[in-house]
Design brief:
By secondary structure, this protein is α/β, with parallel strands linked by helices. It is built from 16 helices and 15 strands. It has a four-stranded parallel sheet with strand order 4-3-9-10, sandwiched between helices. Helix 2 (73-82) crosses helix 3, helix 11 (345-360) runs antiparallel to helix 12 and helix 15 (438-453) runs antiparallel to helix 16. The two termini are 43 Å apart. It binds one RNA strand through helix 1, helix 5, helix 7, strand 12 and helix 10.
RNA sequence: GGCGCCAUAGCCAAGUGGUAAGGCAGGGGCCUGCAAAGCCCCGAUUCCCCAGUUCAAAUCUGGGUGGCGCCUCCA
């Protein structure tokens, strides 16, 4: 199947053709580890986790590199505030980041390079940039001379002359041109530093990604991704550095995700309207956040709200309730139903086919998730009103339909939990939140069962109403009465 | 000022030339002692407005209106 991706470089969807057939290298700009990650970070890493999973599902051997920026002004600032070493701060937040990612089902990437462990590569690249004539030393710093590099602005479609109006010059810097950017910053007192041909100092912000991507993926590689706000200047500068230093084209396809917004405004630290991943996970299951993030196409902005999150949560409950129902039904059917025909085979086949079609069109997770809806309806239908008395046939069909859905879910990193565990954890969480006495609920349900046995429906209904008052909803079925928190 | 994005039902959200996916909420039906859950059916003659191109436009072009982003650390 042809895989089409929207390439920021060309502003169109293009067929993704890896440089080396069967293999694909991808680099995603990772976090600067100076604080807890927010849901904007969650979106980026969930998005590209799904991209990597989908690419792998097509048979590509993917090498996914995502860095940690573990030395930077903000980290130093934080370290000074806390009276710690910069390394302590970055290590702490790397751990927190990994915890967040694990909760969200974001798989570790193949390589997670840290800037502080790649100084030799960085210094060597800066030397090559200087040698190529577009880098210059000024005082203790080294800068990239933007005007001496042809092609600067090709990703962001900016011309230097257009930038002029918004230019701001930091008087502390010794640039020849306001748009030049630092490759190397000479050490200031009390700052962490590393030796270099230009004296003690540390790398500029952009050079790390150029150096580390080349180290693990080669000087030219397939896919480079990140948040939309990195297009300029970060990615533009990476391109300039890499192409000037290596004399080769840099990344072949660029993909960028849209922002998470709050009340239709960008969420950011500077606006103070941001939620950390940890904040959100206090309130909902991590998987619900993941589902929410994937319910909008990655390039569009997504508006974060309690309502939207509740929608995703409800939908996820439906999915796990369906899967739990399938398990229960399955237990009453032949355990080895054998091979053979299926019910609704066309509908089942359409699930995976439709899903893949949507994903192959620029990773359209929103469309892809929509295509799965019929599969869950089918499972419910099969469980509640099977159109056959052939138990083996029913069992085969249930297994096949579920397998199809779970295979798609695996690519999204969704529906991967044991349904019973998910539902119990969710109920336990809600029970605690609402201060519901679970034993009391069970007692009232038992009483109601007695009343029903006596055909005293008035009493049974009173019991049900009483439970509803507590926020508990009950469901009668052949196998007894179950309950959930509303 | 420069560059760019977005506008689809009450809400969320796909769809980039061939006659509007999906979800939530709502209405009806089936099931149920009654419910709940589930399943089925119903819901935009229409895609911010105006003009144009075309046999055909939510989709393309031009012009508006409204919202947002980047150009400064930012995912």
């Amino acid at each position: 199947m042809e895989l089409r991706v929207y390439n920021t470089m060309t502003d169109r969807k293009e067929v993704l053709v890896p440089m080396v057939p069967g293999k694909l290298g991808m680099y995603v700009c990772g976090p600067t580890v100076y604080d807890m990650s927010h849901i904007g970070h969650a979106r980026v890493y969930v998005t590209f986790d799904v991209v990597a999973r989908f690419l792998r599902s097509t048979g590509l051997e993917v090498c996914y590199v995502r860095n940690f920026t573990d030395i930077d002004d903000k980290i130093i600032k934080r370290a000074n505030e806390e009276g710690r070493a910069a390394g302590e701060v970055s290590e702490r937040y790397i751990e927190e980041f990994r915890k967040d990612m694990a909760l969200l089902g974001v798989a570790p990437t193949d390589v997670e390079p840290k800037v502080t462990e790649h100084l030799p590569e960085i210094v060597a690249l800066i030397e090559r940039i200087i040698a190529s004539g577009v880098g210059y030393v000024s005082g203790k710093d080294v800068y990239f001379s933007v005007r001496d590099h042809s092609g600067y602005g090709k990703l962001s479609k900016r011309r230097l002359d257009d930038l002029e109006a918004g230019a701001r010059v930091d008087p502390n810097e010794q640039k020849r041109d306001p748009f030049d950017f630092a490759l190397w910053k000479g050490a200031k007192p009390g700052e962490p530093s590393w030796p270099s041909p230009w004296g003690e100092g540390r790398p500029g912000w952009h050079i790390e990604c150029s150096a580390m991507s080349a180290r693990y993926l080669g000087e030219t590689f397939d896919l480079h991704a990140g948040g939309k706000d990195l297009v300029f200047p970060h990615h533009e500068n990476e391109i300039a550095q890499s192409e000037a230093g290596n004399g080769k084209p840099f990344a072949r396809y660029w993909i960028h995700n849209g922002f998470v917004q709050i009340d239709n405004e960008k969420m950011s630290k500077s606006l103070g309207n941001f939620f950390t991943i940890r904040d959100v996970l206090q309130k909902v299951e991590p998987e619900a956040l993941r589902l929410f993030l994937l319910s909008t196409h990655y390039r569009n902005p997504i508006n974060f709200s309690d309502v939207a999150l509740a929608d995703a949560s409800r939908r996820l409950d439906y999915i796990y309730e369906t899967l739990a129902k399938v398990e229960e039904r399955r237990a009453a059917l032949p355990s080895e139903p054998g091979e053979g025909e299926l019910l609704e085979s066309a509908r089942i086949a359409a699930l995976g086919a439709g899903f893949n079609e949507a994903m192959a069109d620029d990773f359209n997770t929103a469309d892809a998730i929509g295509r799965l809806a019929d599969g869950f309806a089918l499972l419910n239908e099969l469980c509640e009103r099977p159109k056959t008395k052939d138990k083996a046939l029913l069992a085969r069909t249930l297994v096949a339909a579920r397998a199809e859905l779970l295979a798609c879910g695996m690519i999204l990193g969704l529906f991967t939990q044991a349904p019973g565990e998910y539902l119990l954890r969710r109920r336990t969480r809600l029970v605690a939140e609402r201060g519901i006495d679970a034993a009391e609920v069970e007692r009232q349900i038992a009483e109601r069962a007695e009343a029903r046995k006596r055909k005293d429906f008035a009493a049974a209904d009173r019991a049900r109403d009483a439970l509803k008052e507590l926020g508990v909803e009950i469901m009668d079925s052949a196998s007894g009465t179950s309950w959930k928190v509303l």
